[in-house]
Here is the input.
Amino acid sequence: MMTEEEARQLVLSGINNARGNIEYELQILRVEALSFGWIFYWGAARHDQSGRRPRLGGNGPFLVDRENERLIRTATSVPVARQVADYERRLRREVHARNVAAKRVAQQP
Here is the structure.
């Protein structure tokens, strides 16, 4: 099982991979705990003297699943709450599929 610090390192690696031609310093801005792991919001560090943070396109938050150590980059075009709900449904389907498979194995002679 992954710790939050390990998840943070995974996300920093994902941010670095997503960097492309972005010249700004990128950082994790906020972390929220979820039932299955965490959601990491990221963006540019405050860059100028006005204290404003440059806006980036395509910097959807990362979901990290603590059980299977998945790093999921979310889309900016879909509300985050919907993407979290979709992932939670996916996890329930995966658990159900494993349970069905285990029952089949147990029923075999």
Q: What stands out?
A: The helical segments are 4-18, 80-107. The chain has a mean pLDDT of 88. The radius of gyration is 18 Å.
